[in-house]
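Write out the 3D structure for:
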Amino acid sequence: MKSAIEELEAKARAAKAASRRMAYLSAEVKNKALHNIADDLLVKKDEILAANKLDYQEAQASGMSAAMLDRLLLDSSRIEAIAQDVMAVAALPDPVGEVFDMRTMPNGLQIGKKRVPLGVMGAIYESRPNVTIDISVLSLKAGNAIILRGGREAIHSNNALARVVQDAATRAGMPDGVVQFIENTDRALVDKMLRMRDFIDLIIPRGGSGLIKFVTENATMPVLSGGIGVCHTYVDKSADMEKAVAIAFNAKVQRPTVCNALDTLLVHTDIAQRYLPLVAAEWAKSGVEMHCDERALAIVRADISLKLVSATDEDWGKEFLSLKASVKVVDSLDEALEHIERYGSGHSEAIITEEYQAAMRFLNEVDAACVYVNASTRFTDGSQFGLGAEVGISTQKFHARGPLGLKELTTYKWIIFGSGQVRP
């Protein structure tokens, strides 16, 4: 009987062999696999939900936080949304084989680039079972093999979803072994995966800061990771009041447990007296707890219906993942930019303003993967950006940034056409 390590090695070899065939697989076969996945998610919905219920009950009994429970939960509407995202990816152009940047040199050589798959992707992720589908379909459409290693807390859900992907890929004619799922939750297998650079070309960690830090520091192959999402919305002195209230409400309340939700609201002092009572009243309807600096607290404390807390130093640069937000009054756009530079995580930042110069300064000077003018940071999402789905939100600067879609899971090779040239 094979040990868990030997089984992992065998799966890695199978994925590597499959990746060589995937590199020249037709778009028709890849799209057929994705159509099969979308169909099977709906056909096998009850089976998937039953598996997810087991995970949810066990996680709940273990004392998992509300934010993590929300990420773990699947229901009919979420499965249907996942299936729709799969179909959206299927409808996108196949990036593999794209030829670009062609040019003719003085000696007649035609030189350019051709987009090719990365090879074998390794995904190590926590809690969110939808990641099993998102990473699989994007990897397959981009011509890659994939090795999936989910967390213990979602093992039943991930197992059911991985079987859907594997069966759908096989029926479409993809090579055997193209999708590998690691059922064993032993932490030692993560350590082993991170040392398998001969088989795995890129590792993608999805989860908390602890997992991301561990993978980044220990992987022997390139890592494509996102960090925490500490997201700010700055309400400038020229902001349209109605827009500013609606955007701050959506960014905080629409789904507070995710990385692109608002964490800190910065408000220009010239507009604070009018704006803060309005946004506080809207937030109060959903039970948002406001961690206010002294000036913000002085403006809103008269309303006894609000959940108010005096902000501490720990509230700045904090990803709340709940119905909590820190609030600070600032004297200028410069002060807002300085605060974001100090406490931002490079994820998503927004300005609400009617001044073109202020908007352009914000876009130019804020160093983040996604920078918004007059819109909610909740749009930082592969589906919302027209990518169909995403494998994560990268806060790195190499090799990709923001929502990671199909093209971010490819690389290129140089192609050169000659007519007998030799180098003098």
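The longest strand covers residues 110-117.
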